[in-house]
Each structure stands twice: as structure tokens, then as C-alpha cells.
């Protein structure tokens, strides 16, 4: 391989072939310096590198003198490879402004299913009062009857009773002793007591009670000289 070297104005003339299999270049920070003007002359050649990766970190190329690279027509063939560069983007603080606008959402008919587990509610009601205003009014009870409920009933007894004779109220009594009811009996023409008819005595206690009553009837057959026979 012909070769000549010189420190000032020198030329490298090389005819060679590089056959590079898959490999990896890891180039850290470095610099290239050429001491003086020089040139590179390359004859026709090819570079058929295999799959490889270039990982080039921060570095630079420096030349102290003006120089050039010249060579015959040639080509470089690169198989599958990649270049990795560490970099980042820095965006200063900024904001986006949106003018007045509206969003329209159309929801089709649908349903929601909600399951509520068994639970309790506790409600505390403090002492309070309710006020009701009931205006004056009347209740009308139509004539009606009640069936008698037969039996022996225990409880408080009546404290008073009302007595009717032939439908006439003769009074309310807390104690009932001997009572003349002649004046309350129904009368016929001439003030005579109605004959050939029943006379009714009705006693209404103010509670359930057992009533024991006796009725005495005095009939006058004749009266002569104020004597009653």
C-alpha cells in the first residue's frame, strides 16, 4: 500500500477496501485538529458496512488551516443502521386563550339502573306541638238503631242515668229513688191517662250498668166522699 507522510502540506494516497461487519461506534466528546494545510486523495473504492449503530455524543472537528478533501467518484453503502442523538425541547411558560364558545351534547334515550342495599334511616324528632283550628260546625246523625250486644261486661258502672216516660225526659239522676211519674204519662182528652195502650219507661245510664227497677201501679176503682176504694 503506497503511502507518504509530511507535517506540512502532505498527501495520503490509499487504495484499499473496507469490509465492515455489524458493529457499534460510541464516540464521546473529542476534537480533531489538523496542524497545517493538507489534502486527502482517495482512489475509487467502496465501503460496504454491515448493520451498525452510531452513538455520537457531544464532539467537534477543528482545522487550523484551510484544507480540502478530493477523491474519484465512489459510493458508500450503508446497511441497516441508526443514529442516536440525545436532545430535548424546552418550551417557555405560555398559555392558550379560547374565545366564547359552546359545546352541544346529544344524549339518546337511555336508562340507569341503581341498586340500593338494605339500610336504615334514623330520624330524631324533638318535642314539639301541633296547632289545629277547627271552625264551628255541626254533625248530623240520621235516625238509626244499634243491636244489643248481650253478655256480662266488667268495668266501671254508671254514675248517673236519664229517665224518659212515654218519650218525655223527666230528669237526670245520680241516685234514683221513688219517683211519681203520673204527670209524665201520656194523656187522652179530658186529661185522663191514656187507656188501652202501653206506657213506656226508658232509662239511659251514662255507662254500662246493671239496672234494677220496680214499677208500682195504683188503680182507683171508685172514690166516694174523698175515700179511695
Description:
The protein is mostly beta strands and 229 residues long. Among the domains are: 11-81, no CATH class; 161-228, no CATH class. It contains no helices and 15 strands. It has strands spanning 11-14, 24-27, 31-32, 39-42, 46-47, 52-56, 60-61, 68-70, 75-76, 81-84, 161-165, 168-173, 201-205, 223-224, 227-228. The strands form six sheets. The chain has a three-stranded parallel sheet with strand order 1-4-8, with no helix packed on it. A three-stranded parallel sheet has the order 2-6-10, with no helix packed on it. β11 (161-165) and β12 form a beta hairpin. The termini are far apart. The relative contact order is 0.10.
In short:
The chain has 229 residues and is an all-beta fold.
Q: Can you summarize the main beta sheet?
A: 3 strands, parallel
Q: How many angstroms separate the termini?
A: 189 Å
Order of helices and strands: EEEEEEEEEEEEEEE
Q: Please report the number of helical segments.
A: 0
Strand order of the main beta sheet, please? Answer: 1-4-8
Strand segment count:
15
Estimate the global geometry from the Cα principal axes: rod-shaped
Strand content: 15-25%
Helix content: under 10%
**Unreliable sequence segments:** 1-16
Taking all Cα atoms into account, the compactness measure Rg is 68 Å
- The SS-based structural class is mainly beta
Mean pLDDT figure: 76
Amino acid at each position: 500500500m503506497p503511502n507518504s507522510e509530511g507535517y506540512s502540506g502532505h498527501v495520503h494516497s490509499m487504495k484499499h477496501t473496507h469490509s465492515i461487519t455489524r458493529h457499534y461506534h460510541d464516540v464521546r466528546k473529542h476534537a480533531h485538529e489538523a496542524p497545517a494545510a493538507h489534502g486527502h486523495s482517495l482512489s475509487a473504492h467502496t465501503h460496504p458496512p454491515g448493520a451498525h449503530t452510531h452513538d455520537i455524543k457531544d464532539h467537534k472537528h477543528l482545522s487550523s488551516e484551510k484544507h480540502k478533501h478530493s477523491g474519484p467518484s465512489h459510493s458508500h453503502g450503508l446497511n441497516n443502521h441508526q443514529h442516536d442523538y440525545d436532545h430535548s425541547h424546552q418550551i417557555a411558560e405560555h398559555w392558550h386563550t379560547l374565545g366564547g364558545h359552546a359545546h352541544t351534547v346529544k344524549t339518546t334515550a337511555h336508562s340507569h339502573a341503581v341498586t340500593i342495599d338494605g339500610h336504615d334511616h334514623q330520624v330524631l324528632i324533638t318535642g314539639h306541638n301541633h296547632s289545629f283550628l277547627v271552625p264551628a260546625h255541626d254533625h248530623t246523625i240520621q235516625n238509626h238503631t244499634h243491636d244489643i250486644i248481650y253478655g256480662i261486661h266488667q268495668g266501671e258502672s254508671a254514675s248517673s242515668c236519664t229517665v224518659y216516660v212515654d218519650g218525655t225526659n223527666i230528669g237526670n239522676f245520680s241516685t234514683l229513688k221513688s219517683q211519681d211519674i203520673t204527670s209524665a204519662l201520656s194523656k187522652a182528652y179530658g186529661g185522663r191517662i191514656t187507656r188501652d195502650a202501653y206506657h213506656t219507661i226508658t232509662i239511659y245510664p251514662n255507662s254500662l250498668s246493671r239496672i234494677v227497677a220496680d214499677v208500682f201501679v195504683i188503680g182507683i176503682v171508685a172514690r166516694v166522699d174523698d175515700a179511695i176504694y
